[in-house]
Structure formats: C-alpha cells, structure tokens
C-alpha cells in the first residue's frame, strides 16, 4: 500500500502492559517503513497507565521521539487515546481471571469497532504489549472485525535491547546513546534492529456482514455468530432417530442406545426439530420429560418400558435420576466420538442439542432408516 496515496487516517491501536517501549518501537518502525500512524490509541490496565505516564511522559521519552520523527502524531494521556480495560465498575489492574478476560475481550472488540466501522480510517493493531492473554484476545478480535487493508502486527528488537534490565531501558534507536547490560557490557542504541512482523489473520467480518448491520453483542456473542456462520457454510451431518429400533444414525454411522437413554435423546431431538430453545434447569428438564413420556408411552412397544424402572419411583419419574441419566447419555455419545453439537448438554445445567432443526430427522413410520420416509415425528 502506498500511504501517500491513501487519504484515510492511519490509526495505531496498541496493547500495552507494564513495558510501554512496545509503543515507541512500533511507532518508530512504522515511520521508518514510510507508513507512520497519524493517531495512537493504547489499550491497557490501570497499572499500565501509571507506567505509561511515568516511563513515556514524565521521563520525556515521547517528546524526544516526536523531535526525532518528521511527522506529527496525535497521542496524549486523555480518554481519547488511553483506553483502560474494565473490571466491573472500576478499571482493571490486571487481566488474569475469567470474568476480567471476557470483559477485556468485549472492550477490545468495542475499541476496534469504533475504527473498523469508519471507512475513513485504516488501522494497524499491535499485539506486542501486555499479557499473552491480551495478545491472544487482540488477535481474535481482529479476526472478527479486521478489514482487508487493516494490519495485525508484532514488534521485536534484537538482544540485548529487549532486556528490561538494560540501563537505560531501550525505547527506540538513538545513535550515540549508550546502554549497559547487567554484566557491564555497553551497546550503542543506534545498532538496535527493529522487526515489525505482519501477522495474517482470517477476516471473519465478511462472513458476518448480515449480522453487523445491527447493534452487535459482546465478544462471546460475536464468536457465536462466527461459529454459526461457519457451521452453515460447511456440509452438516444429520441426526436420524428410529424409535422402533432404538437406533441413532449420525452421518454414515449408526448405533443403538438403551431405551431410557434413547427416550431422553428423542425428547431433546424432537424439541430442537421444532425450533425450541434449550432447557436451562433440571426442573424444566423433568417437566418436559414427564409430558413427553405421556405423549409417546402408547406409541412404542410396551416391552421397552420395563427397562425404565430406574427412572421411576412409585410410578412417578424421579427428577434426580433423570439428571443422572442425561449425564450417562452424554458419556455414551462421547465414547462414540459424537460431535459436540450432537451431545445432550450445552453446559452445566443446560440441556439441548446444538443442531439446526433441519439437521434432525425422526422416523417412526417405516420401522427402519432405509424404509422410513417421514422427516418429522409422526405419533
């Protein structure tokens, strides 16, 4: 890309932890390559912001860099340029626990969206700073929202200039400036070599074009939308149930289940074939199953019901046993290497299949997968 011909605003978005040298190094490398950023946005923690103020501003490092470069770069320590990761109702001091990580992902996605939805900007996103968790989240968010002309990059500097114990710390090449390592060896800053690596990324935003036309959800929601789109694009295996034979067929493979396991699987499959959502509590599972049993009890051979005594107590279905049987069913299916979307649970206390209704066929009219012709439950 010829940056002189591109009239869009070039924005550098950089992740930063406790070592803000990644910012000055990236700015310097971009400028040396002839593609300087016009604006810098930093995503960091509250602790990182303190380090940024002390090490770049109070130390005069940023001012020195700006005097060295022939371009004016818009960057200061205000809310426009400094974005602090959230932790509940306060700024995050670190990104280590699951809730903070999920919040960080959604926050990074929102910052990226501000610029990727603007046709007058192009971005370079640097994942060199912060914890590895932040870098991973940054790369994943770029895959969700990055455009053709946006860049995902990482900055590296050759040893010993990458050593945080170097005195003084290296921020960008300054010929004649001397650094001393922990062993007393001295090095001229001008000999440092910066390598800005471009990282190819999958541009999922073009798969999600229809979804992005409305207000988007958080990071988890965006991932769900991407996975759903990919699922629609690939050939999907179908689930076929034959109650008369207690047979389950997935793709080209077929197997039988015990009747009490088949009954639970049948119930969940029928619900999903009608487009119904998952069941979110054990009580809901119990009530749904009781109704389903009443619906099908006289429609299948009576001999099957003798094996269901473990599900009942005083002629009533036991709620605690039912929950255990779903776990047993999941274990049986996993042993057969059944894909996750075909399993009867979607998480702790959530019961249902992760299939699209059109993937499910319940054949009760022909007696066998080969001769059955109905694609719906006929009771």
Care to give the gist of this entry?
With 379 residues, this protein is an alpha/beta fold. It has helices spanning 21-32, 46-58, 61-68, 98-116, 132-145, 219-233, 259-273, 282-296, 319-335, and strands spanning 9-15, 39-44, 82-84, 86-87, 90-91, 121-126, 151-157, 178-180, 186-188, 194-198, 239-242, 247-250, 253-256, 312-313, 316-317, 345-347, 350-351, 360-362.
Written account of the structure:
With 379 residues, this protein is α/β, with parallel strands linked by helices. It has two domains: 9-158 and 193-229, Rossmann fold; 237-362, no CATH class. The protein is 34% helix and 18% strand. α7 (259-273) crosses α9 (319-335) and α8 packs across α9 (319-335). The protein starts with 8 loop residues before the first strand and ends in a 17-residue tail after the last strand. The relative contact order is 0.09.
Entry keywords:
9 helices; 18 strands; Rossmann fold; alpha/beta; 379 residues; four-stranded mixed beta sheet; 34% helix; 18% strand; six-stranded mixed beta sheet; 2 domains; elongated
Mean pLDDT: 85
Percent range for β-strand residues: 15-25%
Which CATH first-tier class of the largest domain would you pick?
Alpha Beta
Do you know the CATH architecture of the largest domain?
3-Layer(aba) Sandwich
**Could you tell me the radius of gyration in angstroms?**
29 Å
Strand order of the largest sheet: 3-2-1-6-7-10
Question: How many domains in all?
Answer: 2
CATH superfamily of the largest domain: Hypothetical protein VC1899 like domain (Restriction endonuclease-like)
> Helicity level, as a percent range?
25-40%
How many DSSP-defined strands?
18
How does the major sheet shape up?
A: 6 strands, mixed
Stretches with pLDDT under 50, minimum 5 residues: 366-379
Distance between the termini: 64 Å
**Count of runs of 4 or more consecutive helical residues:** 9
Give me the strand/helix succession: EHEHHEEEHEHEEEEHEEEHHEEHEEE
Shape: elongated
CATH fold-level name of the largest domain? Rossmann fold
Structural class: alpha/beta
């Amino acid at each position: 890309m010829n940056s002189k011909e591109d009239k869009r605003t070039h924005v550098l978005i950089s992740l930063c932890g406790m070592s803000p040298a990644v910012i000055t190094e990236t700015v310097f490398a971009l400028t040396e390559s002839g593609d300087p950023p016009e604006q810098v946005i930093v995503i960091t923690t509250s602790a990182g912001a303190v380090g940024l103020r002390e090490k770049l501003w109070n130390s005069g490092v940023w001012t020195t860099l700006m005097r060295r470069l022939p371009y004016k770069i818009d960057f200061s320590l205000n809310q426009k340029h400094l974005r602090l990761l959230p932790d509940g109702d306060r700024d995050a001091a670190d990104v280590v626990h699951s809730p903070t990580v999920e919040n960080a992902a959604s926050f990074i996605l929102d910052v990226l969206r501000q610029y990727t939805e603007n046709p007058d900007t192009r971005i370079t996103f640097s994942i060199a700073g912060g914890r590895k968790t932040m870098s991973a989240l940054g790369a994943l968010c770029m895959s969700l929202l990055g455009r053709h002309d946006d860049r995902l990059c990482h900055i590296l500097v050759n040893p010993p200039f990458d050593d945080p114990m170097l005195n003084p710390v290296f921020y960008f090449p300054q010929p004649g400036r001397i650094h001393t390592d922990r062993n007393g060896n001295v090095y001229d800053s001008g000999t440092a070599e910066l390598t800005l690596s471009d990282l190819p990324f999958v541009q999922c935003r073009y798969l999600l074009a229809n979804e992005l036309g409305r207000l988007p959800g958080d990071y988890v929601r965006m991932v769900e939308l991407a996975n759903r789109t990919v699922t629609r694009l690939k050939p999907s295996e179908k689930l076929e149930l034959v109650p008369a034979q207690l047979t389950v067929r997935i793709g080209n493979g077929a197997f039988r289940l015990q009747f009490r396991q088949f009954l639970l699987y049948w119930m969940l499959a029928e619900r999903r074939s009608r487009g119904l959502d998952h069941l979110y509590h054990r009580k809901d599972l119990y009530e749904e199953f009781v109704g389903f049993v009443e619906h099908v009890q006289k429609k299948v051979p009576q001999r099957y019901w003798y094996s269901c005594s473990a599900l009942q107590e005083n002629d009533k279905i036991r709620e605690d046993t039912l929950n255990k049987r779903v776990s047993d069913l999941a274990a049986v299916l996993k042993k057969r290497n059944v894909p996750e979307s075909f399993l009867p649970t979607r998480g702790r206390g959530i019961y249902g299949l992760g299939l699209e209704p059109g993937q499910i066929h319940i054949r009760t009219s022909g007696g066998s997968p080969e001769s059955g012709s109905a694609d719906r439950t006929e009771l």
